[in-house]
Design the sequence.
């Protein structure tokens, strides 16, 4: 079983909640249902699971009177073999996007307080299903992502002590032994290809087959296509698909700013903006905006018309390039601009899963660009990404112009500190 960080967040919610239900939301197939089910089995004597997708008839539980007592009465009629134990029962409302009334009823279940309630839903359904009343103040929300690189290492058998020892190199800026550094770079390249979708990761560790991984990723991409057909209007379906499949091309350019003209020959903001927003709402992609000046607060200087787009799972991105590209990545044999864009998406993936709000910086026609800016300890911190190594002209210029207290250069080499730059291997981005 894959160990997930969100399990500890569920435990923290259980201990700290007061008249509050929990909503776990995320893109399709990131493991929401599995981890909630596991959490319930481990921590409650009774778990009542109501899946509105598998059992549409369960929607009738939330029709009419939405008082907690009436809901529990109807629940006992519709759900076979259930048992209520006050203070020791978890009610799991899975695929809640298919029952808007259940989302409305969360307030009354939270106020009743006899049983713990966790709901889960895909971002698509939560954004595109009509809800009469959102339970503001009675619902805590948790975002769930695919596995990050640390969780990938856990799946490989590295425990907390091993990860802590690795973090010590980062915190003390100590060079990593050659053999260990080479091994971790290899694992990082495997993560580039496998990514973090639980079904894919499980298959990888069961079969050790990159071909099986690729087939599973293609299956997930096909399911995403099905979601587009299911949730998007007929007018927008092809536009959404075209935007999504343009991302690999966008990231293969020297300057990876998203251009609507790269979607189609006559592409424009007016034609494709709604399609792009749909993909963001679905959690399939994320947008990172340029800033006019790299000062805090960065959000005050965002330029919404200038942005980059990244796929929210690095494995799905590399699968979109094809199996031969994945093979070249594992063997560290890929060359050309696409490699830089892939590693840029990798670092986005790692920092996004750590909760950072990301921006980038490119000043006018200046050719110099800083891939990412984050706010850390009251300052703006620049992050330059290199797929291998090399000169850092952009970061050098940024240091001269803005003198940040800290800067990162992420490379396919070893750790070091010089000229105001903290150079670290890509895999250490999990500690930034």
Sequence:
């Amino acid at each position: 079983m894959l160990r997930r960080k969100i399990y500890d967040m569920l435990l923290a919610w259980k201990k700290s909640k007061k008249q509050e239900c929990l909503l776990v939301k995320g893109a399709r197939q990131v493991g929401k249902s599995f981890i909630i089910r596991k959490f319930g089995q481990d921590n409650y004597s009774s778990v009542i699971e109501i899946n509105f997708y598998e059992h549409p008839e369960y929607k009738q539980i939330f029709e009419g009177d939405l008082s907690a007592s009436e809901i529990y009465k109807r629940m006992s009629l519709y759900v076979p073999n259930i048992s209520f134990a006050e203070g020791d029962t978890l009610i799991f409302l899975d695929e809640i996007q298919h029952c808007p009334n259940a989302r409305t009823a969360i307030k009354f279940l939270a106020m009743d307080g006899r049983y713990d309630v966790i709901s889960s839903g895909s971002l698509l359904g939560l954004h595109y299903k009509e809800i009469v009343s959102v339970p503001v103040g009675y619902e805590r929300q948790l975002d769930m992502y695919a596995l990050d690189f640390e969780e990938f290492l856990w799946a490989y058998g590295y425990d907390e002590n091993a990860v802590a020892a690795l973090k010590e190199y980062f915190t003390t800026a100590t060079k990593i032994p050659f053999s260990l550094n080479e091994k971790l770079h290899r694992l990082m390249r495997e993560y580039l290809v496998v990514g973090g979708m639980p079904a894919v990761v499980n298959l990888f560790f069961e079969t050790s087959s990159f071909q099986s991984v690729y087939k599973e990723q293609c299956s997930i991409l096909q399911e995403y296509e099905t979601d587009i057909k299911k949730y998007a209007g007929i007018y927008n379906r092809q536009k959404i698909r075209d935007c999504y499949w343009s991302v690999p091309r966008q990231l293969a350019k020297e300057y990876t700013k998203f251009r609507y003209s790269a979607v189609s020959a006559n592409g424009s903001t007016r034609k494709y903006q709604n399609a792009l927003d749909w993909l963001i709402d679905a959690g399939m992609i994320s947008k990172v905006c340029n800033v006019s000046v790299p000062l805090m607060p960065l959000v005050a200087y965002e330029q919404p018309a200038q942005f980059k787009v990244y796929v929210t799972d690095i494995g799905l991105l590399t699968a979109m390039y094809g199996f031969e590209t994945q093979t070249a990545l594992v063997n560290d044999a890929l060359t050309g601009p696409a490699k830089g864009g892939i590693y840029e998406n990798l670092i986005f993936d790692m920092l996004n899963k750590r909760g950072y709000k990301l921006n980038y910086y490119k000043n006018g026609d200046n050719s110099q660009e800083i891939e990412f800016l984050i706010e850390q300890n009251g300052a703006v911190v620049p992050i330059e990404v290199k797929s291998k190594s090399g000169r850092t002209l952009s970061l050098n210029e940024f240091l001269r112009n803005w003198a940040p207290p800290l800067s990162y250069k992420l490379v396919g080499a070893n750790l070091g500190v010089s000229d105001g730059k903290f150079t670290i291997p890509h895999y250490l981005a999990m500690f930034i």
